[in-house]
Fold these 4 entries.
Entry 1:
Amino acid sequence: MTTPRELDGASAGGQFLRTALALSVLANEPVRLENVRGDRPTPGLRHQHLAVLETMAEACDADVSGAELGSETVAFDPGLEGDGGLEGGEYAADIGTAGSATLLCNALLPLVTVLESPLSVTITGGTDVAWSPPFDYLRAVKLPLVRRFGLEAACEAGRRGFYPDGGGEVMLRLEPSALEPIDLVERGSLEALHLYSTESESLADRDVAHRQAEGALERLDSDAPELATQCETAAASPSPGSAIVIRIDHGTGIAGVSALGERGKPAERVGEDAADAANRFLAGAAPVDRHMADQLLVFLAVAGGRVRVPAVTDHIEAGRDLLEAFGVEVILECDGETTMVSVASPLGGLG
């Protein structure tokens, strides 16, 4: 029996768990995680983290211990046979709360490199909730960006799920893929902005989606509004809520920013918050936004490459430590305004 790789999440959150499970599958190595989500006010597995663990385990037919709410120690052994390939199939995951469906999708995306046949999963939970990417960020920003480097995946929302009831439905489909090294160094000129403004159908009579979009357009700096297009949607949802995502197309890639509606907060202000984030990004030099930066680390581990990021966040620091625990050297080179993140020798030559 292979000795599990010991990992400590004392100074990290849920992303450490999600990435560790993905790396375990990619390397076909068992892991044991202590102090799961150790730096959070309520450590241990919450509903959305348990759903990730259970979905990964079902897809791999893995041996697991600690798969229960509140658990701070998890052992996971993917036990893939032969050359470590992963059979696809159709699965369902019910988070049971407004826990993030998009974060579960993020956890599964790297598995494309070891898939032997398509994998589909239908996820019930929150699609546009705090502390996670809104659905349109996943659909219109992240997936189009990583597709440029060989990832074959698509998602759609059958229903939106806002806080507190969740109840959204996301369908994710992954195809076997070979990833190319990531090269995102220079930004290039601004080419277009796309505003995706969504309201639950219960808010349609207040024109929330339109007001969010208009608030964003009025707040954008310089000539950016002239390059913008709007997509406003009233979506079925068990809970009232709204979200806006601004996709920023530039010479070498795609970035995105977002904001969520809040009770008592004018829709125009929600749009302004998203525009403020877009203005900050446009004033910088990095080709990816600060949230995409740490999400790309696992793909660097698989395929190698380099990405210029706007800041070295706590998520990047924790992700770097995790990748290096798997033997993947992550180099950070700061030039004062941005930082180059590079991986020369990816995990086991995967991708």
Note: The radius of gyration is 20 Å.
Entry 2:
Amino acid sequence: MKALTYHGPGRRTWGGDVPDPVVRDPEDAVVRVDAVTICGTDLHILRGDVPEVTQGRILGHEAVGTVTETGPGVRTVAVGDRVLISCISACGRCAYCRAGTYGQCTGGGGWILGHLIDGCQAEYVRTPFADSSLHKLPEGVTDEDALLLADILPTSYEVGVRNGRVGPGDTVAIVGAGPIGLAAIITAHLYSPSRIIAVDLARSRLDAAERFGADTVLTTAEATPEAVRELSRDGLGADVAIEAVGVPETFELCARLVRPGGRVANVGVHGKPAVLHLEDLWIRDVTITTGLVDTHSTPLLLDMLAVGRLDVSGLVTHRFGLDEMQDAYDVFADAGDTGALKVALFRT
């Protein structure tokens, strides 16, 4: 089959010399990939920021497809089912999985697709723990819309909005208006904050943030603590600052924008150390959270999508055929010039 494989920092190939996946364990399923996307984490991998990814690994952890084969232990999905492939695999048995913290699974799951095992930027993918890691798609939910629930919507919701404890009346600053930041805007609205402030370098992404519901947009240069305090409900700064980029400067900016007693929720994948200014933060009672998504919210988000309570239209800006994988990577990686938010690739 054809697949996108990693060959060290800066090197990737798309080719047809990759063996087809097969069921190895009783709880496996093989899924034909009907739609797939590229994540910012894939770009981090290609920059060498995730050394656990070995050469020859098929990348990708966000896809929608059709089940073509199941192991004898699979009970909740069957051949022919349309499914969302979660970015997180869950054994369903370990202590973390029983607590709904699937990202920390110690039974062989967690973030493994496109990381520790072959992923889904391919024509077919083997998915371990199919019963707890695949989600049957409701009627009427399109492949494109469902694709956005494989990673960015649950990540932004769980690691940003929920970990940051966004609540009614809060002032929320979201630093980074890429796909994760925009998804954080969408899901923060579920909790009725008084103001959402989006911060980014690119004018095109700030325009997108306004379309998705940001009340105020600021360039990085404009996003000073003084400016955010003036925009907050009581002049004290952001109740919650969500870091949605993954570079030291944006994390440190979030720590400056948050009010005393506020929360910094780090969502971005960092490849370099960031300075933690405890000499300033300790006395301000600031809470900092980090986390890998658990995807425990995926069924809820799918239900909301199916009944029209979650609008993800507009997040996909560029569409390709599966054989155009290399072009899609180039467009996504050069988002500053191309205006790409999420790209979607479809089986033709």
Note: The chain has two domains: 3-151+294-346, 154-289.
Entry 3:
Amino acid sequence: MAHREARPGRLVVGLAALATAVLYGGDAAGSWHTRWYTALPLLAAALALAAVVGIVGHAARRRRPGRSESKDSTGAPTTTSGSQAMR
């Protein structure tokens, strides 16, 4: 199974979309009344929060020590013509 990168911003937007669906579903079922414009501020706030969460998550992934460059590189430029030993 391939490892997938965590995307917490997408989780925030997905949960907000699900909450919006539940609100309008309850309105359609007659359980409560939801105003027509409720989705606009809810989803706008979710997008703003998702942006913040995504930026913080990205910064946390960049600073993780396991993600740093290889210590094995000697600073020599890579070549596109194959191995140096084959010449």
Note: Residues 30 and 80 are 67 Å apart (CA to CA).
Entry 4:
Amino acid sequence: MDLSMVIELGLLLCISCLLLILSWKKNFGKGKLPPGPISLPIIGNILQVNLKNIPESLSVLAKKYGPVFTLQLGMEHVIVLHGYEAVKEALIDHGDKFADRGHIPILEYISNGLGIGVSNGERWKQLRRFCLMTLRNFGMGKRSIEERVQEEAKNLVKELEKTKGLPCDPTFILGCAPCNVICSIIFQKHFDYKDQKFLHLLKLFEEDMKIVSSPWIQVYNCFPSLLHHLPGSHHKVYKIIHLIYEFIFEEVKEHQKTLDPSNPRDFIDCYLMKMEQEKQQPQSIFTIENLIYIAIDLFSAGTETTSTTLRYGLLLLLKHPEVTGKIHEEIDRVIGRNRSPCMEDRNKMPYTYAVIHEIQRYIDLIPNSLPHAVTQDIHFRQYFIPKGTTIIPSLTSVLYDDKEFPNPNQFDPGHFLDESGKFKKSDYFMPFSAGKRICLGESLARMELFLFFTTILQNFTLKSPMDPKDIDTTPTASGFGKVPPFYELCFLSL
């Protein structure tokens, strides 16, 4: 090692120690942070976290340090909430104080800090209020959107019939349906399942999910300033989002040409009208760039998460044919074969409803939610948490609580059924997170999962090319999200 490298390493170590001292002095006298493992200079506790299985690492640390503990990831202190009581107390009981979005370098990089996902404060409140109102106006949670989902479910069945019962990878087919629902809301379009432009968009979202769930991105989020200018998949994510940006920008330009304020057609029209209302306000947050990144956020939340849940769910049903058989019996008894499933059927189908809940619980799709941050200096339990501190709520620790869900590592619909076979609600069911930052599209996602699953199983028997006992359901990545393994299945018409 030459002298210049030794000097550089020495300077880096000195700067790191200085930052740690400044951080300590800032909080001195205000109270103590929650306990946690001893951290190393510069890298913090990164070596104590398995980046291929972060939820498991957090569970191990929680056993030693308790349900509220501190980690240093890179130069940043984060507070982990582990277990239902800690998560509920923070996100629900003290929701306003835990309502900010935590620091997510990769999302801030690819979105330029725009959109609703990484916004905070008054800006976030205005954007969320507008999005919720507009989505409701276009039917989210209402009969009108249910009809759209039912129609898309029929299109899905037609496409699955084209596989003629041969083994197929369901990834793109299952992605088309929820993506088309979002397309209908955002820019009132429906794409054919073979449309190459549409399939390219789906491929981009799938690739984005894989990369942001990879270990490299977890490292990048800890050391963004150090790694930003180095080669790595964070640059690929940026290129992916730029391509999606261009796709949506073309739709926005088309809407600007054809906008009729007396007859708004979709989300983009409503946003453009809002822009016109605020054009005299120089500081307005309603800009074209914000619109495009909000649309990307809605696509990301409403397409890839739902399609991944469908794909993972079918894999679990292949693994557990006895569960699939019971769903078929319930569908035959309640719906039959002559009409489309509807949301009213849900209350008469406790077993199917329980299975869908168990799929979401078991796959634990977004294990640590998106990070939160505290909006002010607060005392939480016996600890002090400075304003702006990132909070990681472990949803895994809630969804896998062994007191609420006996044998949580087993796929068991009985977790959501009482002794008489009726559906049993659980406060521990938090796949959409909880509190002020709960998923915007929760009601739409619940509707889609029920209608798509029941429509598929109303029309097909699922068959795996391999013996069910040999099917591996272990995710291939468990970073930001859990990515199911590749598999093939046969859709056999009933």
Note: The domain at 45-493 is CATH 1.10.630.10 (Cytochrome p450).
